[in-house]
């Protein structure tokens, strides 16, 4: 993992003589990221694919695979580079799962849990986050929504090949985030930190890291301006669930679950995003 202001400028040198296939959030062109990286990579950049960042749907993932896989077939040594927020990084993780002798239907069946994963020839994956909430760049998980199902279903990629080989975490890339994205990312990061405290596998080391993360977040985030009052942000349907979750935690503060999405605020944010995209 590379971390630090401007660290992403070292990506072209680390690439060496290998080729690069980039999937990036749509605003990367307008923000000048595409132009800068294209100049730095030169003819090593064989494809730049704008990636939808509204929702990591299964249909979007398969569409991206259809764009990326032929290029990876032609350039087996190419590095797949994902640039964007959690949605783009999750879609990039699916796109790196290139089957040896099958098509996107096999990937869809595996994600839906209806078939085992086919034999893969996974592409080398580097991830460059432009937000600071999901942490997808350093985990093996990716969330994909099956919007063809009724009701829409949440699917998870949770495999060893979900890990990227390298992550480039450059804080400067977050400076152009809209205020709403910065707000949501901060609360998401807080949720990821604190919910580990009541996880059944929590231990003194993970608790210390969670509390250190909380201290850093409250030190560096301007919470009164970046976190709205719940009535202005959350759908009314969220309130009963949040009240139940809050009451449950107050009644049983010792309770530790396996869930990674137990914090009420985290539920509020995710439910609000999902309601805007039609996912439950």
Description:
The structure is a single chain. The chain is α/β, with parallel strands linked by helices and 280 residues long. It has two domains: 173 residues, Rossmann fold (3-Layer(aba) Sandwich); 99 residues, no CATH class. Helix content is 42%, strand content 15%. The strands form two sheets. A six-stranded parallel sheet has the order 1-8-5-4-2-3, with helices on both faces. Strands 6-7 form a two-stranded antiparallel ribbon. Strand 2, helix 2 and strand 3 form a beta-alpha-beta unit. Helix 6 packs antiparallel against helix 7 and helix 6 packs across helix 11. It is globular and about 50 Å long. It starts with a strand and ends with a helix. The relative contact order is 0.12.
Summarize this structure briefly.
This protein is an alpha/beta fold and 280 residues long. It is built from eleven helices and eight strands. The strands form two sheets. The protein has a six-stranded parallel sheet with strand order 1-8-5-4-2-3, sandwiched between helices. A two-stranded antiparallel sheet has the order 6-7.
How are the elements arranged and paired?
Layout: E1 2-3, H1 11-15, E2 20-24, H2 33-41, E3 45-50, H3 58-74, E4 79-84, H4 86-95, H5 104-111, E5 124-129, E6 141-146, E7 153-158, E8 166-169, H6 179-195, H7 204-220, H8 223-226, H9 230-233, H10 238-251, H11 264-277
Parallel strand pairs: 1-8, 2-3, 2-4, 4-5, 5-8
Antiparallel strand pairs: 6-7
Helix pairs in contact: 3-4, 3-5, 6-7, 6-11, 10-11
């Amino acid at each position: 993992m590379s971390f630090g202001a401007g660290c992403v400028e070292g990506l072209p040198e680390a690439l060496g003589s290998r080729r690069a296939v980039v999937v990036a959030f749509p605003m990367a062109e307008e923000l000048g990221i595409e132009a800068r990286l294209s100049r730095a990579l030169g003819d090593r950049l064989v494809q730049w694919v704008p990636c939808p960042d509204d929702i990591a749907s299964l249909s979007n993932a398969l569409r991206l695979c259809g764009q990326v896989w032929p290029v990876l077939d032609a350039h087996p040594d190419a590095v797949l580079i994902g640039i964007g927020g959690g949605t783009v990084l999750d879609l990039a993780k699916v796109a790196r799962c290139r089957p040896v002798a099958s098509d996107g239907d096999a990937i869809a069946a595996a994600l839906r849990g209806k078939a085992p994963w086919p034999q893969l020839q996974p592409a080398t994956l580097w991830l460059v986050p432009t937000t600071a909430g999901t942490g997808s760049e350093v985990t093996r998980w990716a969330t994909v929504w099956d919007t063809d199902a009724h009701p829409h279903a949440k699917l998870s990629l949770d495999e060893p090949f979900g890990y990227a080989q390298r992550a480039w975490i450059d804080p400067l890339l977050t400076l152009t985030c809209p205020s709403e994205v910065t707000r949501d990312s901060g609360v998401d990061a807080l949720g990821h930190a604190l919910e580990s405290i009541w996880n059944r596998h929590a231990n003194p080391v993970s608790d210390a890291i969670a509390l250190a993360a909380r201290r850093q977040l409250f030190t560096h985030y301007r919470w009164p301006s970046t976190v709205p009052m719940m009535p202005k942000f959350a759908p009314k349907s969220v309130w009963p669930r949040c009240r139940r979750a809050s009451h449950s935690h107050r009644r049983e503060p010792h309770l530790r679950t396996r869930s990674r999405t137990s914090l009420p605020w985290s539920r509020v944010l995710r439910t609000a995003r999902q309601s805007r995209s039609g996912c439950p």
